[in-house]
Amino acid sequence: MKAEILTLPALVLATMPPSLRAQEPITGYAPVNGLQMYYELHGAGTGVPLVLLHGSLMTIPGNWDGWLGELAKTRPVIAVELQGHGRTADVERDFSYENLADDVVGLLDHLEVPRADLLGYSMGGGVAIQTAIRHAERVRRVVSISAVFRHDGWVDEALQAFPNITGEVLSGSPIESGYLRLSPTPEHFAEFVERVIAMDLVPYDFGAERLRATEAPIFFIHGDADGVRLEHIAEMFRLRGGEVLGDVRPRSASRLAVIPDATHVTLMERADLIIPMVVDFLDAAPPEQGAQPN
């Protein structure tokens, strides 16, 4: 079987001194679907790279502080800032999970990466799942943290809260300060918030059968109070071959973890618990012959 390798980023990283690799990422902007998408390359090695996809309204440092360095110890990591977020300027295009997923693959094309693993949080988890659905040949494994594949996956309280998320409400927050510090258009914060939140104000559905048929194993990670309906969490895992008696027949290659005493926000404070599980999932051997593939 042909080895999967990271081409351009790995070759660049491999020539850097270890001390520099550990401290200074390679950064750049990729021309993708009308965007100039900001990205960072961390870590080293020639394994399958891991792409980090941040949550709604967030940035690389705002989302992945405490995560990126640990993950990059064992694999190449590509951290990105999606449309309108961080250093990636917005364009005249509606926000949608489909568009953002296509942007991820556009970045992989730019970096000459044939196949990648994806780790996404919240909105980024939805983008990761959508990328695996739309571009199966480009995604090996997915880690989805506190995300849904259908609009009604969120609890009613969350759905009712979305319309109240505005630039004014977020004034003085770390989200606003991160935007003001990094965005090429800091004066458009209120408009940015309105445009991003609009994506979650209309019903969407990635499709249960499309999720079931997706080739990449998916690791669903949730908090027990993260705003996603427990029935929806179970539905996603069942679609991926979960809910079996694993002692008597092969288990799915997909996985589920529910972190106790964790909310949508505090999940990201549990890197110490979650990262080892993520690494174990990404490094797991393919399912044995005859086992359920997903």
**Helical percent range?**
25-40%
Strand order of the largest sheet: 1-2-4-3-5-6-7-8
* Mean pLDDT rating: 90
Give the CA-CA distance, first to last residue. Answer: 20 Å
Rg from alpha-carbon coordinates: 18 Å
Second CATH tier, the architecture: 3-Layer(aba) Sandwich
General shape: globular
Summed up, the helix count is 12
Sheet of most strands = 8 strands, mixed
> What is CATH's topology name?
Rossmann fold
Q: Tally of extended strands?
A: 8
Report strand %: 15-25%
* Regions with little confidence, pLDDT below 50 for 5+ residues: 1-22
Number of domains: 1
Instruction: Tell me the name of the CATH homologous superfamily.
Output: Alpha/Beta hydrolase fold, catalytic domain
Briefly, what CATH class?
Alpha Beta
| H-E string | HHEEEHHEHEHEHHHHEHEH
Could you walk me through the main structural features you see in this protein, from its secondary elements to its overall organization?
The chain has 294 residues and is an alpha/beta fold. It has one domain (8-283): Rossmann fold (3-Layer(aba) Sandwich), CATH 3.40.50.1820. Helices cover 35% and strands 18% of the residues. It has helices at residues 8-14, 18-23, 60-64, 68-71, 97-110, 123-134, 156-161, 174-182, 189-198, 208-213, 230-239, 271-283; strands spanning 26-32, 35-42, 50-53, 77-81, 116-121, 139-145, 218-225, 255-263. It has an 8-stranded mixed β-sheet with strand order 1-2-4-3-5-6-7-8, with helices on both faces. α5 crosses α6. It is globular. Residues 1-22 have low confidence and may be disordered.
